[in-house]
Amino acid sequence: MERNPHCKTSCPTQDHTNEADCWRENMPMFVGVSPTKYGWDQTKVKKDERELASYYGAIRQGIEPRSTQQKDIDAAVKLSNDAGKAFDGTTLKFKD
Ligand SMILES: [Zn+2]
After folding, report:
1. Residue 71 is assigned to a structural domain of this protein
2. Which end of the chain is more exposed for a tag (fewer CB within 10 A), N or C?
3. Range of the structural domain that residue 49 is part of
4. 49 — pLDDT class (breaks 50, 70, 90)
5. Euclidean distance between CA atoms 20 and 91, whole angstroms
6. Are 89 and 65 in contact (CB under 8 A)?
7. pLDDT at 63
8. Number of structural domains, the chain?
9. 56 C-alpha vs ligand 1 centroid, how far in Å?
10. Span from the CA of 68 to the centroid of ligand 1 (angstroms)
């Protein structure tokens, strides 16, 4: 496959028209973080960092939220607490 100058070498598709798109698509943890021409949107980054912290906190307990969004994390943690089992958002089932 031809190397795209906007893409990282590790990018599997090599079809991005700018570097930010390539980063976003290859690093799902940064979804929703939009670089502006003045740099990264710090408000958004801070919010995402907080979400990521609760996301990884849930993961450590065996819970798998459907996404890194706070509402999905909260839902997965609540379901897990209610059921007394870790909730797996990818299969929508509880782990035994
Ligand atoms: Zn790319």
Report:
1. yes
2. C
3. 32-94
4. confident
5. 31
6. yes
7. 92
8. 1
9. 26
10. 22
Q: What's the CA-to-centroid distance between 12 and ligand 1, angstroms?
A: 7
Q: How far is the CA of 1 from the centre of ligand 1 (A)?
A: 12
Q: Are 66 and 82 in contact (CB under 8 A)?
A: no
Q: Are 19 and 6 in contact (CB under 8 A)?
A: yes
What is the distance in A from the centroid of ligand 1 to the CA of 41?
21
How many Å lie between the centroid of ligand 1 and the Cα of residue 74? 32
pTM of this prediction?
0.51
pLDDT band at residue 25 using 50, 70 and 90 as cut-offs = confident
The Å distance, Cα 66 to ligand 1 centre, comes to 24
The residue length of the chain stands at 96
12 lies in some domain: no
Q: Is residue 24 part of a domain?
A: no
Residue 22 has which token pair? Answer: 């390539």
What distance in angstroms lies between residue 40's CA and the mean position of ligand 1's atoms? 19
Find the 67 Cα to ligand 1 centroid distance in Å: 22
User: pLDDT per residue over 7-16, tens digit each?
Assistant: 888 888 889 9
